[in-house]
Amino acid sequence: MGIVTLVVRDPRRGGAQKALSCELSMLTRGSGFFAAALAGVGPGQDARIDVECDADVFVWILRYMKTQHASGGDVAGCGAARGAAAAPAAGPDAPGRAHMQRRHQGGSGGSQELAVGNCLEILVAAEFLQMPRLAAQAVAFAAARLPELLAARPEPAPLGLLPPDLLERVALAANEAELEEAFEKIGACGGERRCRPLQRLFKARLSALLRAHDTVLLRCAACGGLFSAAAARKLPCEAGGGGGGGGPHDASRLLLHVPDPNWSFGDYLRALRRRERRSHREIYWHVWGLVQVCGWLLLLLLLRLLLLLLLLLLLRLLLLLLLLLLLLLLLLLLLLLLLLLLLLLLLLHYQMRVIC
């Protein structure tokens, strides 16, 4: 049985070194990074690896590996769990999130439970070591405990240490309502300094929002309004019909928004930040409203068309009813005429008998 000696150099402690040992099979099964690094080491061979990491974090991860290895589970989750690790990016309300929370709050991890004080460091380390299952658990934990992370004393949790992709995963693992709840709790007592990490989450969420809708904002050259590029050919422009001549084809074309080529979405966002001093949270909701409302406008347009069709059908039905009423009136008139003729005939017959 091969043994790997891990010499951990802790940069937080001035480069102090700590030697740890671990079975080769457990290490390669538990981490995709170590599996690649030790690919040339035979099953019965010993090896040595130097690691630069926070010693406490690395010890925690090794204990996690041992606990998972002892239970016979797939420690790294490098197969199917790799897809699950990316699942939070697909939407903020992924159903797997609650499952992940149950796992790290007392499942097969044993005593190795994530905590507010270590979840971010473990997330970074797990991602680097290619342990997607642990990374997914850390993402779910951080998203569920955002208020506690931001309220940590004496300083809020350092969300800034997360690379952009992990920051976005945490931002997407928490839905908008949870982010707003965290903002209300932290903003009421912590001020701008404690809200700053939360603003980073809104910034990351904005990038994900635009990517999910495959769109940016454009400004209409005719009306000056902002609209989503994804709905550029579907949204009507109220000011579009006022310009230009031509025929009916030109008029229908002008009813659509015309993008202003001299307007830049990036410059607009920078202006909101620098000149108007808007926070990333305010910018997120501003853009969210423009992107999402476009969908509602399309729905309203469809509803309008349906209402118009219903009105046309009702008008046709009313016309048919009027025609039927007219036919009935004509029939009644004919019946009255027939009755009058019969009366006249009877009168004539009576008079003829009297004369005779």
Which terms would index this structure?
single chain, 356 residues, mainly alpha, 3 domains, 59% helix, 8% strand, elongated
Write the layout of secondary structure elements.
Blueprint: E1 3-10, E2 16-23, H1 24-30, H2 32-37, E3 47-52, H3 55-70, H4 80-85, H5 96-104, H6 119-128, H7 132-144, H8 146-150, H9 164-173, H10 176-189, H11 191-212, E4 217-219, E5 226-228, H12 248-254, H13 265-274, H14 280-355
Parallel strand pairs: 1-3
Antiparallel strand pairs: 1-2, 4-5
Helix pairs in contact: 1-3, 3-6, 5-7, 6-7, 7-9, 9-11, 10-11, 11-14
Your description of this structure?
The chain crosses the membrane at residues 283-312, 318-348. Keywords: Membrane, Transmembrane, Transmembrane helix. The protein folds into three domains: 1-76, no CATH class; 87-212, no CATH class; 213-326, no CATH class. 59% of the residues lie in helices and 8% in strands. It has 14 helices and five strands. The chain has helices at residues 24-30, 32-37, 55-70, 80-85, 96-104, 119-128, 132-144, 146-150, 164-173, 176-189, 191-212, 248-254, 265-274, 280-355; strands at residues 3-10, 16-23, 47-52, 217-219, 226-228. Strands 2-1-3 form a three-stranded mixed β-sheet. Strands 4-5 form a two-stranded antiparallel sheet. Helix 9 crosses helix 11. The longest helix is centred in the C-terminal third of the chain and has 76 residues, at 280-355. Residues 78-110 and 241-254 have low confidence and may be disordered.
